[in-house]
Amino acid sequence: xxxxxxxxxxxxxxxxxxxxxxxxxxxxxxxxxxxxxxxxxxxxxxxxxxxxxxxxxxxxxxxxxxxxxxxxxxxxxxxxxxxxxxxxxxxxxxxxxxxxxxxxxxxxxxxxxxxxxxxxxxxxxxxxx
Length: 129
Known about the structure:
With 129 residues, the chain is mainly alpha-helical. The termini are far apart. The model has no long low-confidence stretch (mean pLDDT 82). It has helices at residues 13-23, 46-56, 62-83, 90-106, 118-128.
C-alpha cells in the first residue's frame, strides 16, 4: 500500500539556477574567492546581514522608491499651488493617494502613510512657509 503513494519531487528553483550557472562556468573567478569570511559575516541575524549587503549594493526596496516618488510629487504639487492657487489638483492628488496605497501594502507598519487631500497639502504649505 505504501508503494502506491508517490511523494512529489522537491523543486529547488534556486538550487537549479545555481547548478546551471555553475555548469556554464559562471562561478569561476568570483570576487573574494578563496579568502576567509570576515567575523562580521557571522554576527547578527541573516536578515540584518542581507539588508546590509543590499544597502551596500545600492538596492532600494519598492516601498522606499515609492516613498521618494510620493515626496517629490507632493513637493511639486505644493510648488504649483504656490504659483497658481486656482489650479484643480484633484487628479494629481488621486495619483499620489494611489501611490500611497501601493506604498502601504509593502512597507513596514511604522512607515504606513495616510492619504492626502488638497486641504492637507495647503495646510502643510502654510506650515512650511
